[in-house]
C-alpha cells in the first residue's frame, strides 16, 4: 500500500467534501494507494489549525506556499475561489506536485492555457504529473452506465442532448453578495459555477461541441455584502445555449442559480435512434431508459436502479438499490486520482478537457454579447 500525501488548500464547502473523501477512500476502495491528509492551508494560521484538527489533517498552515516544498506532500488539492486556481495550480505544478483542482479550472480559457503551459514545461516521461479536475458528477455509477450505453451503440446514433444544472441557492435577493457574484473572484456566475458541470457532462456523453448560440441574464442585479453595503452583481444568474455537437447532434444547455425549487437540478435527456435515457441528480441512483425495440404495448421509460453491476457501486455496498450520495462521488473521484498516480489510469476530466470547458464558457459569453452563433475552435 503506497501512501499519497495530500495538501489541501481551502476548507469551505468543497474542501470539506475532499476531506471526507480522503478519509473514507481506503475503507471503500482499499489499495494499492491511500490518500493521507498531511497539511491543510487556509487564509490564516488560526483557521488552518482549527480546520486541520476538525478535518483530520496532520498540520495546518496559514500560507499555502508552505505546501510547495513539503517532501511529504504528493498532491496539492485546490479548493479555493476560482480566481486563485491559476496561481496555485501553476505554483504546485512547478513544485513538481500532482494537482487536483476544483472546477471551474480558471476564470477563462486564457488562464487555463497558462496552467497547461506550466504543466507541459514541468512534466516528464520519467516523472509524469497527474492533473485532475473536480467534476465529481461524472463519477456517478449511473453516469458510467449511461456512458457505456452510448459508447456501445445501444442507444444508436445520439441525435439530441438536453441538459441543465439549475439550483436556487441565490434565488432570494437576501442572499448576500459573495465571491461568487464578483467577476474578479469568480469569473462568470451560474455559468462557471454549475454550467461548467452540465457542459462537462454534455462533452462526456455527447462528445465535443462545434458551435453554439448563448444567452445570459442577471436577474437580481444588486445584493448587500456582509457589511450591509449594496453591491452590483457582476455576473450571470442564468444562462442558456443552443449547441451543435461535432457528431451533428443538437443540444440545449441551461444553468441557473435562481431556479426556485431546484436544489440539485443537474439533469439531462439524451435521445438516440434506438433509445433514450433520462437522468436527474436529485434521484442520482436512478437512470431512466426507453428502448425503441420494446414489444408493442410494452413501450415506455423504465427506471434502472443502481446495483453492483454498475461501476464503483459494489465497493460501497453489496446490496442493490442502497443508494450513494453526493459525497460518495468525491470518494470515487479520489479513487480515480489514486489510480492515475500509481497506474497511469485516465482521469474523468484533465487539464485539457477542463480548458475545453472554459473555451465553451468564453464562447457562450461572447455569443450572448454579440447575439449570434459562434464556432468553437
Ligand atoms: P467556499 O467559499 O465555501 O470555500 C473557499 C475556502 O477557501 C474558504 O474556506 C476560504 O477561507 C479558503 N481560502 C480563500 N482564500 C484562500 C487562500 N489564499 N489560502 C487558503 N485558503 C483560502 O467556496 P467553495 O464553495 O468551497 O468553492 C471553492 C471551489 O470549489 C470553487 O472553485 C468552486 O467552484 C468549487 N466547488 C466545486 C463543487 C463541486 O461539486 N465540484 C461544489 C462547490 C464548489
Descriptive account of the structure:
With 377 residues, this protein is α/β, with parallel strands linked by helices. The protein has two domains: 2-135, Rossmann fold (3-Layer(aba) Sandwich), CATH 3.40.50.720; 137-318 and 350-370, Dihydrodipicolinate Reductase, domain 2 (2-Layer Sandwich). The strands form three sheets. It has a nine-stranded mixed beta sheet with strand order 16-15-14-13-7-12-11-8-17. It has helices at residues 13-29, 45-55, 85-94, 109-122, 141-151, 183-186, 190-206, 313-316, 326-343, 351-370, and strands at 2-9, 33-41, 59-61, 75-78, 98-101, 131-133, 158-166, 209-217, 222-224, 230-232, 238-245, 250-256, 265-272, 275-280, 286-291, 302-305, 374-375. 1,4-dihydronicotinamide adenine dinucleotide is lined by residues 9-15, 41-43, 64, 79-82, 84, 102-103, 134, 136, 193.
Helix segment tally:
10
Please state the oligomeric state of the protein chains shown.
single chain
Annotated CATH architecture of the largest domain? 2-Layer Sandwich
SS content category = alpha/beta
Overall pLDDT level: 97
Tally of strands:
17
List SSEs in N-to-C order: EHEHEEHEHEHEHHEEEEEEEEEHHHE
- Cα radius of gyration in angstroms: 21 Å
At the fourth level of CATH, the homologous superfamily of the largest domain is Dihydrodipicolinate Reductase, domain 2
Roughly how many Å apart are the termini? Answer: 43 Å
